[in-house]
Design a protein that fits this description.
The protein is α+β, with helices and mostly antiparallel strands and about 120 residues long. The chain has a single domain (about 10-120), classed as Beta Barrel (Thrombin, subunit H), CATH 2.40.10. About 20% of the residues lie in helices and about 40% in strands. A hairpin with a 2-residue loop joins strand 3 and strand 4. Monomer in both c-di-GMP-bound and free forms.
């Protein structure tokens, strides 16, 4: 049995959009962010939900007017009105902003270092 690393999830609310596709085929949903980790996010399922679970999504999390975290994510679970996503790709600026957010919400610096080490080794 393989051990799965659980990342600390931070309850966090910020203006967030989820999108899928490109051009005329692009679908975008304003969503309610419930929590966030270094490896993914949990949102309240928007209605109507027309997302294709076989394709990737882009999550844009607006921390302020100037600061945004952008992740390419994959849907991992859809249950009880919530959608869970795992991060497939994140740029360096976004990971720096997300790291700072996690750092501010974790009381333990050692825990942050364990989170970052686990993220690098996934």
């Amino acid at each position: 049995m393989s051990e799965r690393r659980r990342f600390v999830r931070i309850e966090f609310h910020a203006r967030t959009e989820l999108s899928q596709g490109e051009g005329a085929e692009k679908l975008t949903w304003p969503v309610e962010l419930l929590d966030l980790s270094l490896k993914g996010l949990l949102i309240k399922k928007p209605e109507p939900w027309l997302g294709n679970p076989a394709e990737t999504f882009v999550a844009d999390i607006h921390l302020s007017n100037e600061v945004e975290v952008r992740m390419e994510v994959r849907l991992t679970h859809d249950d009880h009105g919530h959608l869970g996503f795992v991060c497939e790709h994140i740029d360096l600026d976004s990971i720096a902003h997300l790291r700072r957010l996690v750092e501010l919400n974790l009381a333990d610096q050692a825990e942050l270092e364990r989170e970052l080490a686990a993220l690098i080794h996934i």
